[in-house]
Amino acid sequence: MKDYEALSRKHFDRQAAEYDERDTVYYSREGKISCRDIAERLKDVPYESLLDVGCGTGFLLDILSKRKSARYVGLDLSVEMIKMAEKKRIAGAGFVNGSSDRLPFSDSEFDVVTCSQSFHHYPRPDRAMSEAYRVLKKGGIYILSDTGIGGIGAWIDNHILFRLSRTGDCHTTNRKGIAEMMEKAGFSVIGSYQISRFIYTVIGRKE
Ligand SMILES: C[S@@+](CC[C@H](N)C(=O)[O-])C[C@H]1O[C@@H](n2cnc3c(N)ncnc32)[C@H](O)[C@@H]1O
Q1: Would you say residue 131 has pLDDT above 70?
Q2: Residues with beta carbon inside 6 Å of ligand 1?
Q3: What pLDDT, on the 0 to 100 scale, is given for residue 197?
Q4: Is the pLDDT confidence value at 171 over 70?
């Protein structure tokens, strides 16, 4: 397998400075839709700690922190994305450079884990899913919003699940596939929504 993490890191390091401003499909348009959807679904969810995996420039944490005080942590593979997030000085938020596959947190540390438009980049999706499960408290909520296959194409190397799913090596990142993967990791799926033709959000609870 190619070093997809290295490809992602390079790709997003390059995009970081312009990411927020360029409201297009190749940049932040989908992310903004997913982040706003996640924020909406979290409105009535009580939490004191929240981890955003693949946080990018901190768009989601910025929305959430303006609404509610809590411990917010953003993790991302790209140092340049994290630098952009840190510039926003988001209240209560800390940022960590790392991988979805190896979350540098203790078991049961967070009430909520979110993931917006990032999961389709992960080379080992099952591993990323079980890491989210591990760091959540019992009863904690995992909200994943992404773009399904058939939507934006596999035009860059790091949209790996689009590529791998074509060859049958990997689970597709569609709504049904993500729900199945969540169940396999131990979550109960408590919500599954189609946001637009290609964007969906799935919510799991750690039982
Ligand atoms: C399309 S951006 C989405 C950013 C943000 N969540 C949003 O919705 O605006 C995808 C982000 O996932 C990060 N990423 C990709 N693969 C990752 C991995 N394996 N672990 C952690 N972050 C990753 C990228 O560096 C990038 O910042």
Answers
A1: yes
A2: 5, 8, 12, 28, 31, 34-35, 54-56, 59, 76-78, 81, 99-100, 116-118, 121-122
A3: 80
A4: no
